[in-house]
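Researcher: Next entry: GNAT family N-acetyltransferase (Deinococcus irradiatisoli).
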Amino acid sequence: MSFYPPLDVKVITPKLELHGATDDLLMQLLPIVREGVVGRQSDPFDDPMSLYEDNPVREWKWLQAIWRGRGNVRPESWRLYFVVLLDKQAVGMQDLIGVNFDTFKTVTSFSWLAPGVRQQGLGREMRAAILHLAFEGLGAAEAGSDAFFDNVASNRVSAALGYQPNGSDWATRRGQPAMLNRWRLTRDVWTLNRRSDIELIDVEACKPLLHIT
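Model: Predicted structure:
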């Protein structure tokens, strides 16, 4: 057990595992970050995003952002970082972000995968895992998701998991404006398709830190 409970949290599905992003696990991801996770497709992330930086600035900013996020925990706002393990190998990250959680019990998420393991259904499985943690483990009432209009993979995952279109917005990526699709998933809709094959480990110990009662 660590002194920081979120690092002990695990979410286990038949396909993959999410483990709290310890420094040891982050070091396993460094070679992937060093090589770059942005492919030839349209840029998937909005600004600011350290994964667009050049080496080695990319690595430094990526690690610094995670370390800052661990300590920036308030009742209304927090972020949990998870490393995605496939056959015990670190292949990406899946984050859960509390947004006005103390008032509205709302979350959103962020994720990326190593280029070599994409197009295997892992993006959907990761999102299903983090939604299970949000709704079943932490008592969320609603989950949101944003994706650029041309981020086909992310938009398909949201639609497949029951999110409903929730308007649009503008953001920048590498300084250029682009349209975001917004998605919304309520607890009631999630419950209709709730999975029984996802296991949560050490979530209760994490709740006091997040001001969840």
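Model: Note for the record: The chain has a mean pLDDT of 96.
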